[in-house]
Amino acid sequence: QVQLQESGPGLVKPSETLSLTCTVSGDSISGLHWSWIRQPAGKGLEWIGRIYISGRTNYNPALNSRVTMSVDTSKNQFSLKLSSVTAADTAVYYCARDGIVLGAPDAFDIWGQGTMVTVS
Amino acid sequence: SYELTQPPSVSVSPGQTARITCSGDALPKQNGHWYQQKPGQAPVVVIYKDSERPAGIPERFSGSSSGTTVMLTISGVQAEDEADYYCQSADSTGTYVVFGGGTKLTVL
To answer: Does the beta-carbon distance from B95 to A58 stay under 8 Å?
Structure first.
């Protein structure tokens, strides 16, 4: 079955850039859309942005100026960069597949297990 | 910015029916989806497109929509249903994803 796995540093210094990668296994990354979502400890979910396989992106307006997403079809991976991080960016970061298979492209049908990133 | 509003908490006894609402101005135009999240786990979609249930989700989970509100109903609640539930939709243009603040379901 399709699985997503986030990877990247668990600790990032303030003002630096957070970089995460999501590796997709069990299916091709092509033809689908992919998102990043985060969750601070004890708080709710926040959508960071979406990347289409064409490379087009939509970012949360609240984070737009600091977010960059990219996709590498040869590695079946997509990535997130969040610049100028502060303590407020400390969260569990999830990658997720948009629910095209469900006929609901704006939903998320498969999630990674999440990776904790601390800014300190 | 666009917001979805959920009650912070809902409590029910086992076997009863739990109803969790989610309100947002764009919901008449955009689909609503629901996720269940248990402690330490990633969210799982339990309802999509207002009322569709993914394979493997128990039939006791159902969804409905009326005007600016979508609702998740869990009939015959079981102890294992205790979790946080999040609604999710998009803004009126369909460009940006929004999550509700989450509802903690407690099974008494």
So the answer is: yes
Mean pLDDT computed over every residue of chain B: 97
Question: Which residue shows structure tokens 């996709």?
Answer: A71
**B43 to chain A: which residues are within 8 Å by CB?**
45, 94, 108, 111
Reference B12, options B105, B84, B80; nearest CA is B105
**DSSP string spanning B43-102?**
-EEEEBTTTB--TTS-TTEEEEEETTEEEEEESS--GGG-EEEEEEEE-TTS-SEEE---
Q: Are A46 and A60 in contact (CB under 8 A)?
A: yes
Rounded distance, CA A13 to CA A78, Å?
23
Whether residue A97 has pLDDT greater than 90 = yes
Question: Is residue A32 very low, low, confident or very high in pLDDT (cuts 50, 70, 90)?
Answer: confident
For chain A, the residues whose C-beta falls within 8 A of a C-beta of chain B are 35, 37, 44-47, 50, 58, 60-62, 94, 99, 102-104, 106-109, 111-114
Q: A45: which chain B residues are within 8 Å (Cβ-Cβ)?
A: 35, 43, 86, 88, 99, 102
Residue that has been written with the tokens 């630096």 in this structure: A16
The bridge status of strand B9-12 relative to strand B103-107 is parallel
Interchain CB distance below 8 Å, A94 and B96: no
Q: Say whether B45 and A107 touch across the interface (CB within 8 A).
A: yes
Distance CA A95, CA A5 (A): 8
Task: Report chain A residues whose CB lies below 8 A from the CB of B95.
Answer: 58
